[in-house]
Amino acid sequence: MKILISGGAGYIGSHTLKQFLETNHEICVLDNLSKGSKIALDDLQKIKKFKFFEQDLSDFMGVKEIFKQEKFDAVVHFAASIEVPESMQNPLKYYMNNTVNTTNLIQTCIENNTNNFIFSSTAATYGEPQNSVVNENSSLAPINPYGMSKLMSEKVLKDANMAHPEFKYCILRYFNVAGACNTYPIGQRYPKATLLIKVAAECAAGKRDKLFIFGDDYNTKDGTCIRDYIHVDDISSAHLAGLEYLQNNQSDIFNVGYGHGFSVKEVIETMKKVSGVDFKVELAPRRAGDPSVLISDASKIRSKTSWKPKYDDLELICKSAYEWEKQC
Ligand SMILES: NC(=O)c1ccc[n+]([C@@H]2O[C@H](COP(=O)([O-])OP(=O)(O)OC[C@H]3O[C@@H](n4cnc5c(N)ncnc54)[C@H](O)[C@@H]3O)[C@@H](O)[C@H]2O)c1
């Protein structure tokens, strides 16, 4: 197949690009490099050559031109704005980049007979769930514009599929993505990260002076929030499984997580253990909108697709994040 990976220069996109380059598919990448890394793309060209379009998705005519030229069979769509606090301050940026640009991309796919669409969605679509373990049928109630912009794109995909049944989608709702590739020098590059394992790795590598725990009075075993952390290479392989699923099945939605979680304190202890660095940790007030526990029910993706996660090991995830942080 000829596949376009949008956002392929970003964190998850570059890991997924690597895995797709190791298949027989022909790959192209589209990215505006606003957050992505050209260095990562140049490195990945060594695995197998691929076309790179430095292109902003908001330039609809430019995107349409590329589709006319290339005739893609599938799109794996990562490109998005992804920072929750920023989405509260600047919601229109999120609705424009995540929902409007995705809608245009979907329309362009339909116009050009590109009938397989893999979409990066998020556990943020569940908002603050009533149960700590959520499955794909749990209620969807995002509590920030980022989550809502993704949920709206899910709806656009579903409606487009109703009207054009030949156009199929696979929506992947990721939980807490972390770590870095174990075999290639790619990882999460952008500064001002807010994700716990990235921040802990930065502290261990001496790039930050301390880590804040936002609340230790939650109703959990040690009072800190629990999340389902998943290695980025396992998230990436879910896209290959998703594409394979679309070849034989109808459109579908899958949670992508391991189905169990760790507390903030457990992550910090693990990072300190694997790095051997006793970095400074301070307690801060709770942040608005942080559910105490958020874990995926990941049984659907395991039972319906060929996805087999390989890195369900918090020590390995933290170690890979720390090793990457020291070199990047
Ligand atoms: N990182 C996570 O924990 C997480 C969790 C759930 C879902 N997701 C989703 O996964 C996807 C990838 O996230 P990531 O962490 O790799 O983010 P990232 O910022 O590293 O990657 C996004 C990429 O898209 C590009 N991009 C953004 N807007 C663009 C535009 N208008 N035109 C062209 N390129 C554009 C950026 O330059 C960047 O390379 C996103 O859709 C995000 O919502 C991420």
UniProtKB/TrEMBL annotation:
Molecular function in Gene Ontology: UDP-glucose 4-epimerase activity
UniProt KW RNA-binding keyword: no
One Pfam entry name: Epimerase
Pathway the protein takes part in: Carbohydrate metabolism; galactose metabolism
Reactions performed catalytically: UDP-alpha-D-glucose = UDP-alpha-D-galactose
GO biological process terms held by the UniProt record: galactose catabolic process via UDP-galactose, Leloir pathway
Annotated NAD-dependent epimerase/dehydratase domain residues: 3-257
EC number(s) stated in the UniProt entry for this protein: 5.1.3.2
Listed transmembrane segments: none
Broad class of enzyme this protein falls into: isomerase
Domain of life according to the entry: Bacteria
Requisite cofactors: NAD(+)
Keywords: Carbohydrate metabolism, Isomerase, NAD
Subunit record text: Homodimer.
Protein family: Belongs to the NAD(P)-dependent epimerase/dehydratase family.
Protein name: UDP-glucose 4-epimerase
Organism: Campylobacter sp. CCS1377
